[in-house]
Specification:
Elements: H1 3-17, E1 23-27, E2 41-46, E3 51-55, H2 61-67, H3 69-72, H4 79-83, H5 91-112, E4 133-137, H6 144-149, E5 153-157, E6 165-167, E7 170-173, E8 184-188, H7 190-193, H8 197-203, E9 209-213, H9 222-226, E10 231-237, H10 240-249, E11 257-262, H11 270-276
Parallel strand pairs: 4-5, 4-8, 5-7, 8-9, 9-10
Antiparallel strand pairs: 1-2, 2-3, 6-7, 10-11
Amino acid sequence: MSIAQDTLALLRDAAAAQPLPRVRALHLPPAPPPGGMRGEFCALELEDGSLGLSYVLLGDTWAQLTANAGRHVQPGDDPLALARSYASADTLQRTLGFAAVNAITRSVMGRAGWQPPPSTDSIGQLDPQPGETIGMIGHFTPLLPRLVARGARVIVLELRADLVGERDGVRVTLDPAELRGCDKILATGTLLLNHTLEPMLAACRHAQRFVLVGPSVGGPPDPLFARGVTLLGGSWVDDPAAFLQALKAGMPPGASVRKFALTAADWPGWRTLLDAGR
C-alpha cells in the first residue's frame, strides 16, 4: 500500500480506539508577499485544541480556500472523513486531508501525553562531513552555505530549469537520478503532500540518512520509518492561540512553536500511543 493508505489505516485504528474530537475551524494565512516565504500554511483546529498544518501554495489552493473556505470545512465536521481526502488526486482536497491527518495525529499524541524530542540544529542532524555529498530535495537556500562550509558537496533537485547549474560547491539539477550517489538527503515535507516521497526514497535508496523536514511534517511516523526515512523534523505547537494569531497575521510563529527531531529509536509506535490514550 501507499504511504497515504497506510496512514489512513492507522487513523481508522485511532477512531476505533476512542472517538476523535470534531473540527473546530480552518485557519488560513493572508496572501504571502511577492517572493515572500510567510503565509504558506493553513491550520486545521480540532475541538481539543489540536492543530494540523498543511502547505497551501500548491497550485491555486490558497485562492480557492480563501474564496470559500466554508464550502470545504465546517465546524463539527468529522476529521477522519476529511482526512480521507489525503489520498485524493485533487490538490485542494489533498491539502485539507493532510491537515486533518496532522491534526488527528497531534490529538492522539496529546491524549497519550507524548511529545517528540527537541531538535538540536536546523539541518536535521545530518552532521555533514568533508567529502560527503548531500542531496537536497527542495531549495533550502539559507542552509546551503552551512553545508558547503563543512566541506560537503551539495546536489539540489529542483523543478525550475532556470536554476540549473553548478556554483560554489552546489549543483542544481532537474534529474532525480543524480541523487543516487548522495550520502545523505535533506527533503522538504511537501513530499508528503504531493505524494512524491516514495519515488524520491527509491531514487535515494543508497543514502545513509533521509531526513524529512518542514512545519507540516506530521502524521503517524510508522509508515515513514518503515520506508527508510531516518529522521522527521517538524514544528511542535506549544501555544496554539499565539500560533494562530501569528498565522492569520502572516507573521513568524516565534516562541509559540519549537522544532523537533524524531527518529525511529525515539518513537514508541502508534499502537503504544493508542493504548496509552485510552
